[in-house]
Specification:
Bound molecules: adenosine-5'-triphosphate, magnesium ion
Helix content: 25-40%
Largest sheet: 6 strands, mixed
CATH topology of the largest domain: Rossmann fold
Number of domains: 2
Radius of gyration: 19 Å
Order of helices and strands: EEEHEEEHHHEHEEEHHEEEH
Shape: globular
Number of helices: 8
Distance between the termini: 42 Å
Number of strands: 13
Structural class: alpha/beta
Strand order of the largest sheet: 6-7-8-3-9-10
């Protein structure tokens, strides 16, 4: 059974088509890197898999069933995570806030729910972080707590939207490796969106590249090529491989890196 299946799927906002007539099949237990320029539809695709945006054409199936809102088999880490205004809370309380229906200040969690929170924290090696106030954690440590939150309820599919934004290369690698380890240990399908391919190399099974309404799914060797990316970017792209890293170049500049830096400046404006 496929984890995710798109059959002739078009995703649109009114007259604006984001993805057109997409067919794809993602297997159980695959780690998929989702790439593509700003506005190519990475977030939109995840929202459609969550059942938050009905396709204007075609059908999406998740683990063999038609998409549905509030699907308990999916864990989701949204891109817009907003300011963490509960900084007084401990890491434990923060993760626990993701338990279904739990609200700040409401009665204690059931024993089963507490066990679930402890299990999720253990998966990301954050038992020690759980005791510390959120205010004292680094960006990378918070990302681990967010990953723990997405694991609550033991989903079979994880949608992680840009978990690497605003992390330095060291923490990026840590988050990718941790996600890969959890994915293999728990046995879960992961869609992991990012602006840059390099931090994901070595962890991903296949890459899903979006652009200009199209999608290309395959191994890095199949998809990250000049002809395929030129079609997705709508301009002449050169793929340069150097010391085990891959650079996606257009007219002499690195298009992925440019987008990434753009993210950083945006991040500072919003925070
Ligand atoms: N609620 C909405 N209403 C109208 N248009 C939208 C809405 N959400 C997204 N879009 C548009 O859909 C397109 C795809 O957006 P999406 O957020 O999926 O891109 P993305 O690949 O996640 O980009 P980024 O790398 O910036 O996160 C963009 O052109 C965006 O402006
Ligand atoms: Mg996005």
């Amino acid at each position: 059974m496929s984890a995710i299946e798109f059959a002739g799927v078009t995703l649109a906002f009114g007259a604006r088509t984001v993805l057109a007539d997409i067919d794809l099949r993602i297997d159980d237990n695959e780690f998929i890197g989702v790439l593509g320029p700003n506005g190519s539809g990475k977030t939109t695709m995840m929202r459609a898999i969550l059942g938050l945006l009905p396709p204007s054409r075609g059908a999406i199936r998740v683990l063999g069933k038609p998409v549905a809102r509030g699907n308990p088999v999916i864990g989701y880490m949204p891109q817009m995570r907003g300011p963490l205004d509960q900084l007084r809370l401990s890491g434990w309380d923060f993760v626990a806030s993701g338990v279904n229906g739990h609200q700040w200040g409401l009665p204690l969690l059931s024993r089963a729910a507490r066990r679930e929170v402890a299990w999720a924290l253990e998966q990301v090696h954050a038992a020690d972080l759980a005791r510390r106030p959120l205010a004292e954690t680094s960006g990378g440590e918070r990302q681990r707590l967010l990953l723990a939150q997405a694991l609550l309820g033991r989903p079979r599919l994880l949608l992680l939207d840009e978990p690497l934004i605003s992390l330095d290369p060291h923490h990026q690698r840590f988050v990718v490796e941790l996600t890969r380890a959890v994915q293999q240990e728990v046995g879960i399908t992961v869609l992991f969106s990012a602006h840059e391919l390099n931090p994901l190399l070595g962890a991903l099974d296949r890459v899903l590249y979006l652009g200009h309404g199209n999608a290309a799914l395959g191994t890095v060797e199949e998809v990250v090529t000049g002809p395929v990316l030129s079609r997705l970017y709508g301009s002449e792209i050169d793929v340069v491989r150097l010391n085990g890293r891959i650079f996606v170049m257009s007219g002499g500049h690195d298009v992925e890196r440019d987008a990434h830096q753009h993210d950083h400046s945006e991040h500072h404006v919003h925070v």
